[in-house]
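Course assignment 3, question 2. Fill in each field.
Student: A.L.
Task: Predict the tertiary structure for the chain below.
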Amino acid sequence: MREYLLTLCVAAAVTYLLTGPVRKFAIAAGAMPEIRDRDVHREPTPRLGGIAMFGGLCAGLLVAAHLTNLKSVFELSNEPRALLSGAGLIWLLGVLDDKWGVDALIKLGAQMIAAGVMVLQGLTVLWLPIPGKGIVSLSPVQSTLLTVALVVITINAVNFVDGLDGLASGMVCIAAIAFFMYAYRIWYGYGIEAAAPATLFSAILIGMCLGFLPHNLHPARIFMGDSGSMLIGLVLACGAISITGQTDPDAITNLTGSTRDTTHTMVPVFMPLLLPLTLIAIPAADLVLAIVRRTWNGQSPFAADRGHLHHRLLDIGHSHSRAVWIMYFWSALISFGAVAFSVNSSSLWIVLGIVTLSGMGLIALLMPRFRPRAPRWAEAFVPPRYRRTRIEAHAAAAASIAAGEAPGVNGATALSARPLVDAGRGAGGRS
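Answer field:
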């Protein structure tokens, strides 16, 4: 665990330290596109943040290759090299798109090529355990098609959800943490060494996202761009494909005692549409809805619009930060709920906890205009957004008077005497 944490910290530190210089380079290179109608930011912001994230990926892999316990991952498996080659192609494509723009069909083709390069180096899905049927081996053609589909879907799902400051990097970080917990359990809990690459990939991915988040939180100083969103989507997909394609279910059967128990144990990882552990459920849902919406309106599925889930949260009244936190909440609930369910699927407390948290999330979702305000005596100790503004104080005082409260209660009389004076000054009292 210590070596994984060291790799994570190195990836985070390198990404964080590189982001500042990359921002200056992006400004000098002119990678600051004009604001579009569907954008939510108000000032041109540099892109190319994926350059720093790619640096974090390379640093994490380089450090892991020299650590005692992780060195075997590079000696016994070609998957780290496959990841690096595919990530390099996707990253280069993203850099070109951030600077000059690349046609959507060309990007799709390049994504398929990057996935094909990884398949040729052994990073592929070999088999799937299907409930009721057991282990189903895939032919080379089926394996290639499924792997390419998973990579392309995950890349575009993450790319589609990258619409608010800190949204994509935060959601992928949450997904990577949940996946790290599951992969680490397969690796050390069941002693399956083939799960080690997936565990390493998820640890590095956490570091890449954590290192970039401080620069990307609202208001963002730099965007990751397609060079970053496609990169972290590919790394997330590689972790899922690695544990899917290389983990031998027979090894777990020796511990669980039956093929049936093994199949149910591995289902959260092997279900292609939920892979891995439904970690990309929110981005995937946004992707599907966007394709259906654009096709229904007679547009290209790749045409950009302002109908994504995060845009809808803004439209119903949520602030930028609250919309991001709501997306974080649902991503964490689905991800960690899947992890908990995979550990003990028969626990009633887990189901009740998920249902309760889902109810709380729905309440927060349906109350976009709720803004908690601290009591007047505590306003000096809380951030400004939790304090009452002057207008709100006057409105509260007027409401108290209209309700027939006695003068002097909660300072109503003193507050009600001020609006006319303040209004007079605002209209030119200080000429």
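Instructor remarks: The beta strands are 127-130, 134-137. Confidence is low (pLDDT under 50) at residues 268-277, 405-431.
Grade: pending
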